């Protein structure tokens, strides 16, 4: 029987399970969406129990579709939406309220108060991150102070914190009955609580955010031959599968794109948009509004770091056109609508629904559509929504080149939006850099599989993973420099209109 690696990809809008062979080919896949909960403006939540239930369902469907023996699965890797935060009762597994999603801005007052004392970069030396609502640390504090009994349980050692990777690993390996409470270095590096130099929780930061150390998971490598336990015979895999790979979703995509050398970069187009540049063993602190993050750590080797540019709203804007405005019935319809006009008609859509992330870090910003006239129609709105993703990516790329002094020769892309060929051509045009799509665009799940497979020796080294990467399509820039610059100048002007909306 064939040997297989399994991957669970728990994202912002859906959960999927995928099975891979040695060549990185997908043998089976299943996916299910989960509810997006918006209790107040700026608040975004998920039901953790719904996510766990969805995970069990997609595993079951994936295995049934493939008709494989679960005993042929050598290892399991997890990848997850990062920064989404929950605290739960370690005896029962019951969460202390919904998970607070990475896009959520409810901790703005706390972050603003800390920034008034030390500035937005007061923790950047330790963590590589600005002070922002994006990260887990402020969210943990909010949950402990605002969820019934959470603070008391935490002080008694009866509560556990985790991002979604930790939550799923805990349940998969037994939950209340001895489940493993771990997170990997990439996810830990997104909390505002881990010191990049020590790769451990920083006691001073825990004091600042009022977080008891005993609720935190153990920090482990992204690919760990020691494993963190196995799935249970009574669980969704119906077999004891070692759980030994864990990567935050964007780092998983970097691994899935085989960007293992310093200077290699990828951009993932999902709910948000995330560009990562491998900087090797060097911790490069950004002066241009980017994040310094752990890219991955394979076993007992040294950690590899990356610069990251995070954009909050890209694919989520297309979902907004579909769900909130009813402008389209299905997300792919936006390309058909946008192709009916030759350009954006002077319209620019800045989707600062949760403030602006890199390179601005403005939680006071809110979304605007600028340049509207009587000439504007729904096609221009659709085109402006697509172009917003490309413009935001250019801002991130410019910041990345400024920090790293590396000029990219091409940009590897992945994620759901790369099927939109109008967007991919405009991306190449506005960057003036070729854009390359791999044959497998869902590289996030593949990266988690690689981490697990390396841990158990299914793949021996990263060179074997590089050999699996294959190009699907290549877009060359076609826009003249004058048009490119004029469009970008208007975009920058539109961005300034989003500032200072929230007092």
Query: Order of strands side by side in the largest beta sheet?
Result: 16-17-15-14-20-21-22
- Tell me roughly what share of residues is in helical segments: 25-40%
Please give the largest β-sheet.
7 strands, mixed
What are the segments in which pLDDT stays under 50 over at least 5 consecutive residues? Answer: none
Structural class: alpha/beta
Rg on CA atoms, Å:
22 Å
Mean pLDDT: 93
The tally of beta strands, per DSSP, is: 22
Q: Strand portion, in percent?
A: 15-25%
Number of helices: 16
The end-to-end distance, rounded to whole angstroms, is: 62 Å
Provide structural commentary:
- The protein is 33% helix and 21% strand.
- It has 503 residues and is of the alpha/beta class.
- The strands form seven sheets. The protein has a seven-stranded mixed beta sheet with strand order 16-17-15-14-20-21-22. A five-stranded mixed beta sheet has the order 3-2-1-5-13, sandwiched between helices. Strands 4-7 form a two-stranded antiparallel sheet.
- Strand 14 (265-269) and strand 15 (273-280) form a beta hairpin.
- The longest helix is centred in the last third of the chain and has 27 residues, at 378-404.
- The model has no long low-confidence stretch (mean pLDDT 93).
